[in-house]
Structures are given as C-alpha cells and as structure tokens.
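=== RUN LOG ===
request id: a7f3
mode: sequence -> structure
chains: 1
length: 363
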Amino acid sequence: MHARAPMSSSSALPLPLPFFFLHLLLLLFPPCCTGCSRHLLLHAGANSSSSSSLADMLQVQAGDGANVTDGLRRYLARFGYASVPDDADGQLVVRLYQSTLGLPVTGRLDNRTLDLLATPRCGVPDLHLQPNATARFAFFEGQPRWARQPGHFLLTYAVVSSSPPYQPLPLPRKAVRRAFRRAFARWARVIPVRFRETRDYNMADVRVGFLAGDHGDGEPFDGPLGVLGHAFSPPSGQLHLDAAERWAVGDMADADAGAVDLESVATHEIGHVLGLAHSSVPDAIMYPSLKPRTRKTELTLDDVRGVQALYGSNPRFSLSSLSEPDTSSASPAAAYTNTRSPGKTTTATAIPLLLLVAITLLC
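=== RESULT ===
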C-alpha cells in the first residue's frame, strides 16, 4: 500500500461557510442535465421530443411536498397502479409504485421517484402481487410458457421490415437483425431453447415489428421517450417497438441525447415473450425502465433464475459464468442506493461545486 502524501496547510483548512451550504444544496438537489430523465419530466413542455404521457405530469413539482396530479394518476394506472378511493393525496399509490420498483418507500414524490417516473420504460404493466417481498423476478398470471417437448426445442422469429401497419425499420436491416440475433442468443445461452430467424413472418413463433401510435392491440404507443415497446406473454409471440423512438445500436457514448439502445430493449422484451414479468431488481434486464443512451444487455442472476424456473437450465451453462453480482437477495432500498467515497471536503472542491450548482440552476 502506498503511503498518502501529507496534506498541505491550505487543503487542510475547513470549508468556508458559503461553500458548505452550496455543498449541502448539491446533496439535497442533485444537478440534472438536458439528457437526464428528471430534466425531461420537468421541462417536457419545451422539449418537442417528450412524450404526451410525460406532458400529462407537467404539474408535478420536484420535492417531497409535491402533489399527485390527475395526469400522474392516469400514468400510474396505465402500468397497473390503480388509486384507491381514500387515497386523496396519492401517497398510497406512490408507496405501491416505490415498493414494487425497489425504491425507498416514502409515499412522497422525492427526486429519486420523479427520476424513475420520467425514465422511458416498457409498456407492460408491473405486476405487484407481493409489493413488500424481497426484490426478485416475477411471472405473468398463470405462469405461461412455451409448451414444447422436454429438452432443447426451437422457436423461430421474424422481423417485419415494412408491411402496414408496421413501420419501416428505423435502422439498416442488417443492424436490426444483428441486434435481435445477439439479444435472443443471450437467453438461449441460459435455457434449453434455440432461436432461429425466419423470413416467413406469418409462421414465425415470435413476430417483431416497429409500430406507431394506436396500432390495434389496445396498447398504443405515445411518441419518443415514453413507452419504448411491449410484448405479450406466451404463446402470443407479439413483440412491438415504438417506431417514433430514436433507436441506436453500438456505443451509446456517441449517440444523441434521446437515443435508445435497440439491443437493450430487445433483450428485455424477449424476456416477456418467454414468460417473465417485470423484476423489482434495478440492475436486472427485466426491470421496466431504461434511461436514454444506456446500454443494458447482460442478464443478471435474477433474470437467469427467473427464466430457468420456466424452462430449466441449458446443460452447457453455469451460473458461475455470470459476471454480475447477485442482486436478487438485496433489499430494494439497498439495490438503489448510491455510495460515495469517504473523505473530507477541502477548499480544492470549491470550483467544481460552483460549476455543479450553476448546472443545477440552469436546469
């Protein structure tokens, strides 16, 4: 271990009082940027790329004292969080939302809850049959699965390029096919199911297509950065993605602020096609929300245990090969906690703090 160099006398000085308050303000109200979910929620009126669902929530103000508006109630009801008659202030429905998705249960629209509400997500409702249970995977009602003979079996899939009501592919067909091929391969690695692409869309087990607005299945899309896609439980095989999104593939570091990673969403929706509902583990593929410019494609232990409960394990797969830590046994609050390195604040942090506070005020 290397010895730490002694601190200079200037760095050892206590933080001046104004900077202490600035630091406190920064901790209580984290800065946002034009690409973050809280900015998209609170500034959606000035952002033409924001979805109508988020626009319904514009009356929501950041902070613990915020009220649950009618627009927010409708938004939550869309994903399975129905308000009860005696929930006048909305605390009960907010608590249910928080407990289901692994947030600290406060009953208040704190910044963390607003961030998640504003994050683009899957359109499949969250199943909260056990809202106080330890964060873990879940199934659709009745635990449907693809019924095939024991052992390895084959499911075919097809991606529709353009055939009404399906929209043209938002990316080159080769890039879209590659993204879905990798997404299906991740699930095939852990269960005894093979996936093969076919050109015969009508005969395929899984049918993938990009659609816009109300497309006839009772689950209309709502434009950019709202509902990203949805899929139906077995044996439907329908997997729909919102054509209005700014889809991207590859490295998200160079993508536009509102870009959504196609492979990440495809991996999530295939989990629904196989019979998995939403998980309350924030790191899991089956967690319902995905921030723009985020690549999230690797199955966690929670995802693997869920899908293997339906289909068994691929004999060639070992749980020890997963690189992600097991978060399925962690408490919801712990799974969503940010950690900071210990240490004292010195005068050397004053300039970065001022910059961050300026960003906060601009937001």
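=== NOTES ===
The beta strands are 121-122, 153-159, 193-197, 206-211, 227-231, 238-242, 246-248, 259-261.
Confidence is low (pLDDT under 50) at residues 1-13, 27-53, 324-363.
=== END ===
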